[in-house]
Amino acid sequence: MPISDWPENERPREKLLAQGAGSLSDAELLAIFLRVGVRGMSAVDLGRTLIREFGSLGGLFAADPAALASVPGIGPAKSAQLKAALEIAARALREQARERDALASPAAVRDFLRLTLSDREHEVFVAVLLDAQNRVIHVEELFRGTLTQTSVYPREVVKCALRHNAAAVIFAHNHPSGIAEPSHADKLLTDALRKALDTVDVKVLDHFVVGAGGGTSFAERGLL
């Protein structure tokens, strides 16, 4: 049955306008974006199919554009639109982090990092560089590794911090396994980076480990 034949209070667009976006399921939000379904499936059914196919909204956004475009009802145009939507969300979160003290609004930084890193297929190491007021001045992807590890060089991290005149830094990396638990190697790396940055008077404020289900903060764990 097409969505236009549904009771008005059950249609995703009308439901959003009446109750707010938070009242919609992931599939219903996708249905508003998709606008139409395909033969035998409403837009909501197509949204459910996409989430099932790619595992989650994060998996959908992280999917290869060619894989998205191959799904009936998506194609290259909607695949590009989905990627654009993800980038818009990431930039909005980055703006929030830049406008506020990163220590006073850790949720904005954490949300930005989760959106950026949680569904990457390979391990990625990112530095969030801060000024003296702990405002974000730059975000740089420093290293990209294999599925299991990334080679991170303290000298390159120091050079990056000096290049942007940073007063402090927050590190983040993802675990493609999905488990956001710091490893022994993560702890050794963080200590080595902290000592290297101490020599140029740059503080390490935190290190986030991002997984599929969320993130773990070194600072909150008392590991810094």
Describe the protein in words.
- The structure is a single chain.
- The chain is of the alpha+beta class.
- It is built from ten helices and five strands.
- It has helices at 12-19, 26-34, 43-54, 57-62, 65-69, 75-99, 106-117, 154-163, 184-198, 218-221; strands at residues 124-130, 136-144, 168-174, 203-211, 214-217.
- Helix 2 crosses helix 3 and helix 6 runs antiparallel to helix 7 (106-117).
- It is elongated and about 65 Å long.
- The protein starts with 11 loop residues before the first helix and ends with a helix.
Give the topology, please:
Elements: H1 12-19, H2 26-34, H3 43-54, H4 57-62, H5 65-69, H6 75-99, H7 106-117, E1 124-130, E2 136-144, H8 154-163, E3 168-174, H9 184-198, E4 203-211, E5 214-217, H10 218-221
Parallel strand pairs: 3-4
Antiparallel strand pairs: 1-2, 1-3, 4-5
* Count of individual beta strands: 5
Q: What is the tally of helical segments?
A: 10
**What is the helical fraction, as a range of percent?**
40-55%
Q: What's the helix-strand series?
A: HHHHHHHEEHEHEEH
Q: Based on helices, strands and strand pairing, what is the structural class? A: alpha+beta
* Spatial ordering of strands, largest sheet: 2-1-3-4-5
- Rg over CA atoms, rounded to whole Å, is 20 Å
Shape descriptor: elongated
What is the distance, rounded to the nearest whole angstrom, between the alpha carbons of the first and last residues? Answer: 56 Å
Which percent band covers the strand fraction? 15-25%
